[in-house]
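User: Show me sequence and structure for the first protein, then do the same for the second.

Assistant: Starting with the first protein.
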Amino acid sequence: MRGAKSAKWVVGAAVIALAATACSSSDDSGDKKSGGNKASSSSDGVVRAWWGDPQNPLEPANTNEVQGGKVLDMIFMNLKEYDPKTGKAMLEAADSITSTDQQNFTIKIKPDLKFSDGTPVTAKSFVDAWNYGALVTNKQLNAYFFADIQGYDAVHPSDDPTAKPTAQTMSGLKVVDDHTFTVALKQKFSTWPDRLGYKAFAPLPAEFFSNHAAYLAKPVGDGPYMIESYKKGSSMKLVPNPNYTGPSKPKNKGVLLKVYTSSDTAYADLQSGNLDVLDDIPAADLSHVKSDLSDRYLNQPAGIIQTFSFPMYEKEWSKPGMDKVRLGISMAIDRKTITDKIFQGTRTPAADLTSPVLGAAGGYSDTLAGDSVKYDPAKAKQLIQEGGGLPGGHMTLGYNADSGSHKEWVDAVCNSINNVLGDNKACVGAPTGTFADFRNQITKGQMKQPFRSGWQMDYPLIDDFITPLYATGGSSNDSKYSNKTVDNLINQANAEADTTKSVQLYQQAETQILKDMPIVPLWYQNAQCGWSDKVSNVTVNSFSYPVFTDITVN
């Protein structure tokens, strides 16, 4: 993911040769010289930041990827929000969320809340939004997050978008008055309220339902910023929302998100003063970023894990015996060499399916994956051969070429697999030009070969690293993996009031997932961010997003 330079590392003969050539692989912007839109600059109090076009229009229940999520975090205030430093879920739009049995909840929202268009935020704003998100005919990617509410099965009888719902709204949602609504869940779920900071649960204004096209053209939220303009493929301008009354009022005059198609171009713009904030440092620049930016660079743990998924809906990857092949592929990857040589200490080899930011009490384990992520060339080759070999004798590894230095690590992973198998064409990278196109292929089930599937947490619970990705029908279960044992353990974990026991059940589910290996865990990713000398107070939250509201313009 870089432009100006290329980098090549050759690791000793005892290990593997990792050829990592820099490429234009990040979400960078249109104008290669200036980074695009020149109408705003840091001199007018506006922060200019790197961005990649989101996959879909910004509907909260239909956005489950990082670039769209970055905007939703800026324009919506949920019932709860996550503390930027600790990740702890704190009441925000909600005045209170109470329950006597951990199954039936009463939610009171704060009075006098307004959307950026001046209309009131009411209990109905949440109930209508959640019902819309759940209804199968609305084809929302995040519908699964409402599956715990009573009546979900009536509005979403299956994941088939042609399914006929028997109701239009969920029976478990009731509006009591303008500031109160109740939620009845299918079973006890003690940590359910902490999910409510995830943007799928955001409220929606009346315009969303009365003039949907107008909303999609210029989304309206209740958060610290509002959208002033958006040109797809170029930029989005956000300005402070005058109706926002929450605690995170912007300390700047706005944010200009500039779309890049090469992180190399973005990094060059950062150094030349044409960009203020870049949270996607190219891998080839990691060795010298500290000297380039001095104290204007941070590198800290974040709730992100990089993986790649197998298309379990394709028979050649899911037939009997392929579990050995999938496991062998995982064991053929030299994670430590790749993270050391390419990512310069900004990645850590994965030992489970979660993230170290959760801590042991939250479900992280540095031993759970065991030998399945251990580099063992002899065992890896044996397993792949015993399982019948790579389908057709070779595999491709799909990735989006516009962000994240994906070409470098995909090439390195394939080289590692190829060295184990003694065939330099056994695995090759398969780039897709943009993140949006790449995600569209995945959500449509068009991937026939393994593909990149990294995960950035939505909320700091082990549930978020397991349920949406591996439960049958999960909102981000891109591999279409399904295992009844895993589903049962997830349900038991959700219903368990004791947090320690709940975490243990999730970890049992995780153990089964790793045995099946529908995905390959690679490494945990740190949050990185660089900024220009024109801005100050730049921090990054535990989700890896810059805390834009705190940034000041010098």
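Switching to the second protein now.
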Amino acid sequence: MTESSDMNEAGADETGANEGRALADREADREAVWARLLQEVSTLPGLPGVYRYFDTQGNVLYVGKARDLKKRVSSYFHKHHGGTRIGHMVSRIARMETTVVRSEAEALLLENNLIKTLNPRFNILFRDDKSYPYLKIASHAFPRLAYYRGAVDRKHRYFGPYPNAWAVKETIQLLQKVFLLRTCEDSVYNHRTRPCLLHQIKRCSAPCVDLIDREAYAADVARAERFLLGETDAVLADLQAQMMAYAEQMAYEKAAEVRNQISALSRVLHQQTVDTVMDKDVDVLAVKVLGGRACVNLAMVRGGRHLGDRAHFPVHVQDHVVEPDEADADAPQPTADALLHDTEVRVLEAFLAQHYLGSIPPDMLILSHPVDDALIEALELQSGRKVNVVLQPREQRRSWLDMAIKGAELALARLLSEEGSQQARTRALVDALDLAPEVEAADAAQLPEAAGAGDPLARLRIECFDISHTAGEATQASCVVYEQHKMQSAQYRRYNIADITPGDDYAAMKQVLERRYGTAGLKAARLPDIVLVDGGKGQVAMAREVFERLGLPISVIVGVEKGEGRKVGLEELVFADGRPKLQLAPSSAALMLVAQIRDEAHRFAITGMRAKRASVRTGGSKLEDIPGVGPKRRAKLLQRFGGVRGVTAASVDDLASVEGISRELAEEIYRALR
């Protein structure tokens, strides 16, 4: 045996010994942590409270509530959970915190607040970036109807919330037809000298030019409010009495106008097939769980009118920890149907807590599954009023619930179908680029929490870059991210490009890649599997130069080159590592995915460039200095008022009428621009 081979064997032995000692140290540390946790559990009181579990990095794993803290928390540590998800979570617990409260209802309130604040890894989470819209009747001598989304101001009247923007706008159109209320902005209203088109088509009574007096208009507003509150019979009776009064006074033209209002309102009520005179404000909730995904469908009834529904899809359902049963461990194991029902109940309870705690629920909730009485008690506690819960509705309420259940089933089936299609696209791209071995070998521990441990394709990460400008002005680069079979909008980034020759796309691409993947810029746990650049050989060569200088693998760089005639579907993929161009079939699922990501990068770059250009051309920097006015709100203000001068001249009421601008922010903008 040679001297070098002896040294190699000695080195291998030493490496193995070091790995063994490290493993032993980790096991010893884990035993010490476990002993400390058991000691803490033994001292817990048998009182209501909330518990939190943390891992070694201080990340929150789970937040739970308990009627009996000692019994609930002990069940995690004194039972064998095997390789289940709960076992995986328990194995990661490094420390815990508990808070004792007076009742289970208080525990629910605290649990919900902590879930929203801490975003724990193993809790069911509902994320909805969009607030529900309202119909607003703005305070004014001649109040106007308006679509509204945001914080409410007691100065105005609000009706809702509505499930979507369409429901609000449809209701506004209905009120225009029946009650002829104005919808124009105050800035338009104050400068009218003759009736607008809405008056000509009998959608407005034209208070702007005094074609209706204040008292008559106020009566129409009052009737509209009563209609929105569900008092339709009273409104019809009032209109009929007014029509008869005009007839007795031989004011036949006015009587005919009221008759037309009655006819319009009657048609509306006849068309509303799910109308009821009993219930006014009701929320109907149905939950379905299938294929590891869940859907809670929320249907809204306001003023006795069914306004539609909205489907909500929680995350972490596949990682949901079913809390240990506090009953005897020798109890019979539940059936599959029972487990599914239990999961659906827990999903519904999570939605009720996260959706209603902190807001005012309607008078009645119709639910597809029974929920914990303590949760309803908590809703009543925080809202200060009785909340009626109906579990087995009849007649009209039954039809509402059936509609909500069917809607949940259809929405969930559509989601699973879309996800299956998107997974097929991911698989097709991985196969086309021969990435399967690299993707499947990726370290799952480095992936985001929602990445599926059993789905290697979910680990594929693609980052795509695009450059946008107008003749060299307001150059911006965009970076969009595709991972877990979908676009990750929260990880999108825009980069302002400076110190380059205007219109030099190559220099812009070089700058954004250096900033993204340089030492200070690469924040991701791992380099993307694919870096897409929107361009051909030139852009790919620039990307290669940057990656070689940074010491990064060039094999991940792929350019999307437009095909002959720049026709969609004829794009070719260009590689930085010398592989020949790849032209995929127009019907290829892989090409569809590339086009989807490329188009999203282009859209994101274009919107950023336009906002930046508008800021430069209109002096938007004055608005940029105001806290709370970001790019989106600034763009809406500039669009509404035609520039900074228009914003400066606007009143507080006019500013507050812009979507996303609260009364407080409007006052702040008004003061800052004076």
